[in-house]
Specification:
The chain is of the alpha+beta class. It has helices at residues 3-10, 13-29, 42-55, 73-79, 83-88, 90-118, 124-135, 145-161, 173-193, 198-218, 226-258, 264-270, 280-283, 287-303, 305-308, 311-330, 336-339, 341-345, 347-356, 367-388, 390-393, 398-408, 421-427, 441-449, 452-458, and strands at residues 415-417, 431-433, 463-466, 473-476, 489-495, 504-513. A hairpin with an 8-residue loop joins strand 5 and strand 6. The longest helix is centred in the middle third of the chain and has 33 residues, at 226-258.
């Protein structure tokens, strides 16, 4: 009766492909400051600027002055090939970085569709189109989320390939060891793409260990001897050994080079705990669908033992629920795709599994049409928020001023600002990041010791930009750091000659702690 609708339900990939091509064309040819820049948050420019400087040989630095490890390494490595392009043209480099994110997101959904095919999903269209409606347009391109989604989909896809229909791991020793090695590398890559994905990896490690150790507790094999060594301890050692070597090496590098195991951005964020518990639940666009996805996973998992014995579903559900619990406990849901991309990406998987547990009569088949309308509504809402929400329009207003600075500021100008990713990238002038996310640990120590004024002076901070006249003394904006300290620092300034009455450059004559 509705042949077009039936094709959408059975073959969602053609519809998704058309949408992807249109989206890519918009990124390629849309106006840079009116359209393209809406798809990248300010923190995304931190990645671009660090990758640009690293790629041209300046090392791991955002400002060219201090060293930093304030980024997830795998995504930064993906951006390194674009360094020379970004140096030659900031705009072309930005378009290519966003297109890379679009391609990675597309690959993630292709793998998700392949996973639904292997699992013989009864609601394949829902498996794919539901998360796509909330993630395609709204993903924070320039950030690590698209890479995380691709690796997560690949990880689950490989797990499904190595699991038989009875949801037990292949008993062949050769295949089990191969699976263990692949899981070691993929799970390590997932953590290096985003550190908090370690929660998903932890759930996998626990499930895999239990699956291999279960025969010991059930007394189906001997606890000692060659058989136990080969079929239990050797696979666990291979998987855990690869994880320990790769992740341990990264943590050790951080410790010996920067003095801390974790990144400066992660530690600074941990020092900015939100005192209002669960305030993110109504303040974040991604929180509600993310939490709903976790509830769907929990409902499906407790519904039947058949689902509980499904390794892929159990790992995805446990990782999602654990992630949401950690967000709730730490009140860290400050932004959409930093925290909720993975749960939303898996939402179609969870609702498909839940619906498959209930036999629906034929008369309810029209509910598919209602679901399709809901998906279109979510897709429209994603476009609306990306196009009109103030959070996505405000950074674009800094583009013109940044380009003005690039043309008129002295070549030795050094600025100090929070949320300065876009300004540093397009102004082609160093910006010391005073929200601390991509500055050095030495900057954090200066905040605690009350010597931040000396730190900024020694770093060469010498310029202030404004669009309106300023008094002779101004406060430099500095955010609370990893020790919970946010000192007041003031700068004495004098106006540089400027014929433009809408852009003002001020020379800093001295920096001191405010009384």
């Amino acid at each position: 009766m509705f042949p077009f609708r039936a094709k959408i339900f059975s073959h969602p990939i053609p519809v998704a492909t058309v949408i992807w091509i249109l989206f890519a064309l918009i990124i390629c040819f849309g106006p840079i400051h009116q359209v393209v820049m809406r798809f990248i948050p300010d923190d995304g420019y931190y990645y671009l600027e660090i990758a640009r400087r690293m790629g041209i040989g300046e090392g791991s630095t955002f400002d060219g002055i201090t060293v930093t490890n304030g980024y997830h390494p795998l995504w930064l490595w993906c951006l390194l090939p674009l360094a020379k392009v970004m140096t030659a043209s900031r705009e072309i480099g930005l378009r290519l970085a966003i297109l890379l994110g679009v391609a990675l997101t597309g690959g993630a959904f292709l793998l998700l569709n392949a996973l639904s095919g292997i699992r013989n999903s009864t609601h394949r269209w829902l498996f794919l189109l539901l998360p796509m409606s909330m993630l395609l347009v709204s993903s924070n391109y320039g950030m690590e989320s698209p890479l995380v989604l691709l690796l997560l989909a690949l990880w689950l896809f490989v797990i499904q390939q190595f699991v038989n229909r009875r949801s037990e791991f292949d008993s062949s020793l050769q295949k089990t060891l191969l699976f263990s090695a692949i899981m070691g590398f993929l799970s390590s890559a997932l953590i290096l793409a985003r550190l908090d994905m370690a929660l998903f990896v932890l759930c996998f490690d626990a499930f895999y260990a239990w699956t291999l150790l279960k025969p010991l507790f059930q007394h189906t094999i001997k606890a000692t001897g060659y058989s136990a060594l080969c079929h239990i301890w050797l696979p666990l050692t291979v998987c855990a050994g690869i994880q320990m070597v790769l992740i341990g090496s990264y943590l050790a590098y951080n410790f010996f080079v920067y003095g801390h195991f974790l990144t400066v951005s992660a530690i600074v964020k941990s020092g900015r705990m939100d005192s209002s518990r669960l305030s993110w639940l109504w303040a974040s666009w991604g929180a509600i669908p993310g939490v709903a996805s976790g509830m769907l996973a929990l409902a499906a998992w407790i519904r039947t033992r058949q689902v509980q014995r499904d390794p892929v579903f159990t790992i995805a559900a446990a990782g999602t629920i654990l992630s949401l619990l950690v967000i709730a406990a730490t009140s860290r849901g400050e932004a959409y795709h930093w925290y909720f991309a993975a749960p939303i990406f898996l939402s179609g998987f969870f609702i498909d599994t839940l619906l498959s547990l209930f036999p629906f009569p034929r008369c309810l088949s029209y509910a598919k049409l209602a679901c399709l309308i809901l998906i279109l509504g979510l897709f429209s809402l994603s476009i609306y928020r990306r196009t009109w929400h103030p959070d996505h329009r405000l950074p674009n207003r800094h583009y013109d001023s940044s380009k003005w600075i690039a043309q008129h500021a002295p070549t030795d100008a050094v600025f100090a600002l929070p949320d300065c990713g876009l300004k540093a990238y397009f102004s082609e002038r160093p910006h010391l990041n005073t929200d601390g996310l991509t500055c050095s640990f030495d900057f954090q120590e200066s905040l605690r010791n009350g010597t931040v004024a000396s730190f900024l002076t020694s770093a060469g901070v010498n310029m202030v930009y404004s669009k309106a006249p300023l008094p002779e003394t101004v406060l430099l904006p500095i955010r609370k750091g990893m020790y919970g300290v946010a000192p007041h620092v003031q700068a004495s300034i004098r106006l540089l000659d400027s014929e433009n009455q809408t852009h003002f450059l001020w020379k800093i004559t001295s920096i001191q702690m405010a009384p």
